[in-house]
């Protein structure tokens, strides 16, 4: 298991990398022409995506680890042009992506996560039972090293907004059956400190159904936090509050993965 202390150490290292990248960006901006500055300002305008799902919609977080070969790219093009339209016929919607950007911890090492939905579990079942799907389902093994679909029916609906000027983290927890309450306490005791450091819990998925090429076990909880700036998570990990409760994450889980994400909307 990746411990909270290992997350702290590697996130601190990433801060040096981010600072170096920031200096390079500043130098480039200082040498830009007026027309380039106008174009850059237009590109920097924040975007947002509102995800509003009705009761009993099926929400899906898809973690993807693409193969990087010409053959995989060709197979991916076939999948996009043939399989995705079948999904869309049954109400599939792609809302946006959160790309891994910084240290990530876990046996699964995706490039990012897609946020998608279906009108209902029944709509997804119709897609899965479509006679055209099995051919493309098998094609996935030629595209991804692994792809993981975390699906959860939203009994009361879902309202969620993603913004391009925000930053995100995702924790995927496999709780210890004997000490699961420790992980709940860990998150509860962090909530005030998260807010203090410019973050907020925006989504928790409990016991999602997992489909994957690797036949991995379903996790017990996915927890998303939105941050006002890129260093919010780092400040949290340096805080006295975090240091006082991080042992609860260790005792409350058998495996804990952590991903630092940036939005692609």
Automatic annotation (TrEMBL):
Residues 171-253 form the DUF1330 domain. Residues 1-28 form the signal peptide. Keywords: Signal. SUPFAM superfamilies: Dimeric alpha+beta barrel. It comes from the Bacteria. This is DUF1330 domain-containing protein.
């Amino acid at each position: 298991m990746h411990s909270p202390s290992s997350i702290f150490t590697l996130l601190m290292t990433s801060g040096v990398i981010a600072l170096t990248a920031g200096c390079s960006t500043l130098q480039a901006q200082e040498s830009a022409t007026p027309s380039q500055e106008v174009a850059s300002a237009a590109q920097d305008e924040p975007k947002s995506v509102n995800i509003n799902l009705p009761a009993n919609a099926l929400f899906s977080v898809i973690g993807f680890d693409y193969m990087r070969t010409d053959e995989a790219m060709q197979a991916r093009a076939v999948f996009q042009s043939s399989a995705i339209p079948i999904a869309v016929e049954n109400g599939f919607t792609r809302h946006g992506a959160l790309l891994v950007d910084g240290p990530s911890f876990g046996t699964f090492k995706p490039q990012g996560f897609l946020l998608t939905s279906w009108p209902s579990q029944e709509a997804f079942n119709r897609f899965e039972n479509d006679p055209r799907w099995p051919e493309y389902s098998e094609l996935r093994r030629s595209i991804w090293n692994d792809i993981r679909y975390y699906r959860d029916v939203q009994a009361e609906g879902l309202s969620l907004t993603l913004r391009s000027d925000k930053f995100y983290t995702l924790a995927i927890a496999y709780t210890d059956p004997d000490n699961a309450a420790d992980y709940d306490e860990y998150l509860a005791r962090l909530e005030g400190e998260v807010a203090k450091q410019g973050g907020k819990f925006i989504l928790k998925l409990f016991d999602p159904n997992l489909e994957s090429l690797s036949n991995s076990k379903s996790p017990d909880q996915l927890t998303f936090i939105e941050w006002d700036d890129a260093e919010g998570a780092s400040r949290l990990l340096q805080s006295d509050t975090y240091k006082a409760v991080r042992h609860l994450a260790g005792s409350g889980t058998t495996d804990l993965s952590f991903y630092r994400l940036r939005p692609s909307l």
